[in-house]
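Human: You know discrete backbone vocabularies at least as well as I do. Show me how you would write down a chain together with its backbone fold. No explanation is needed for now; the record alone will do.

Assistant:
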Amino acid sequence: MRAASQKDSPERSALIQFNARIDIRGINPFVLVSARRATALKKGWRKPLPVLVRINDMPKEPWRINMMPVGDGSFYLYLHDTVRKASLTKAGDRVQVELRFDQQYRGGPAHPLPAWFSKALAAHPPAKQAWQALTPSRQKEVLRYFAQLKSEEARKRNLEKAMMALSGVQTRFMARTWVGGK
């Protein structure tokens, strides 16, 4: 996620503003966005909803983030640390929320499949099949993770873990336990 700049969003979508309390779910601070408000942003949207957010008029440039569906038409707006620090807010605070649909959002992986990973998948059909069966958001998460790896050693280490995870071996990879290739 990153801040959006004015040049990023030449088209302006509807802005919604409301007051809410920052709650906590597990360890994640969030604001619940009602189904009615979510519909005002993007009618009929049921998957993660890309928005530009500001809390108490901060950060100066709206922050890009995806609201997560609850299942009843409402969404969790998890508040990234950058947004909370800029707005000087924490769980329990009442805040003014400003949301706008992110017109610049484009689905699908943001990072290309690295050649070293593609080659490993081609050599191991069960892992390739498991990779193709992953949800697009999980593929995107893995590719984003791979894109930030700097050294050859880190790539080798993480390729080994990824291939184990995708081969169905229960293992820890990317801070989660993978079971059965998922």
Summary: The two ends are 24 Å apart (CA to CA).
